[in-house]
Amino acid sequence: MPGVFMKTVKIKKGWQFKIAGKPSQRIKNSPAVSHVASVPDKLPFIRPRLLVQKGDHVLIGSVLFEDKKHPDLKFLSPGCGTISNITYGPRRVLHEIVIELDSNEIFETFEMITDSALDLIERKPLIARLMAGGMWPFVRQLPFRQIANPDFRPNAVWVSLGSADPFQPSSHIYLKDQVGFFEFGIKALSRLTDTVNICRYDNEKSGKNDFDANIVTHRIIGKYPASDPGVVLYHTKKSAAENHDWYIDGQDVIHLGKFLKTGAYPIDRIVSFSDASSDNSCHLKTRMGIRLKGLAPSAINDHSKRWVVGGVLSGYTSAGDEFLDPHQTSVMIMEETNQSELFGFVRPGFKKLSNSRTFLSVISSAPLTINSDMHGEERPCINCGYCASICPVDIMPQFTYRSIYADEIEEALACGLLDCVECGLCSFVCPSKIELSDFLIEAKHRYHKELSQVA
Ligand code: SF4
Ligand code: SF4
To answer: What is the pTM of this model?
Structure first.
């Protein structure tokens, strides 16, 4: 039943996903693993200070590292066992902390909180608990998408249930048997700010395992990336003060509730797994920090495959030997190909995944298989305007790109750079293969760095 005060938000621009291999509603358990890891270099804007060394024994929830700038911000172990390896990337950036698991894993214990105590707890001590308990990194802040600044009081927290990206987990699956924790998490969030907006993507309608749908505040309709909190905020905000609102994914709200209610660091995870070349696509019940090859052992030595983590259009590619960033919930395997297509320019393109009207696939709704082929090198902009016509937050990426290129950051900001929700659509549709979204994201990060140096 819809909420009495529920608003419907219709997003007009975006892209109708028609990629084959989306995960089915089937739930599978991922195989048991011997190692898990924490991956600090996937966390945005963090300078980690390592607090363990190789050979140390840790429990689930022991502190592995903290942020140098905010030492109260702790990052906890997703496993109980011995630290077997610590690796660094370029410029000695901390890459992975690997834990070899014990056969019997033990949890650190944190103070539990009851329903009535949650009603009374002050904002500050609650934030301190969430920071010490490794929960705070799940709360993010717009527009830079960094871990939320605990000293700031936002106008609202946005909670997303379901996604316009069908390769992300379904909320029905992660809510199954977890509704109590979800509602407890929502209650905790309401202690942090006056408004908690719960946005349900339209395809994620009520199911039999569902929670009280009356608490949903926004129903989101539209194509990818309509469900992104940045898109919803862009289309609903009334003042610039809202630009710095916080957001959190529905599955992470469950974790927050579980942590506060049980006093244990939750490590369970529902990950959507898709492999267009097989019928293995499903929802995997797994744990945080698992090695990717633990999700699909058969694909790991197959060099014709590419692993994509975090979304087909906005995620990153990975060697399957890496560990899954605890914040990511989507893994896809696609064909690795760089073969050029003979006479590709005269083919009608019935099977070409593109938004361009020059390919006949645009008139079909049949799902198409995606692969890593870029279909050519980067070329100069031809001013076709495709990028602007698809951008869900009305940026003109081609002009923003030029401003950044000319080092005119003020001009890029005036073009709406900070509204960019990092969805990747502009790069996807660009016939000149310009990596617009990467360019804009990098400029946003540089600007954030400048602002932090001034502060
Ligand atoms: S500029 Fe590109 S990446 Fe940013 S929101 Fe628009 S389409 Fe998405
Ligand atoms: S889609 Fe590419 S070629 Fe077309 S206007 Fe945008 S940047 Fe230029």
So the answer is: 0.89
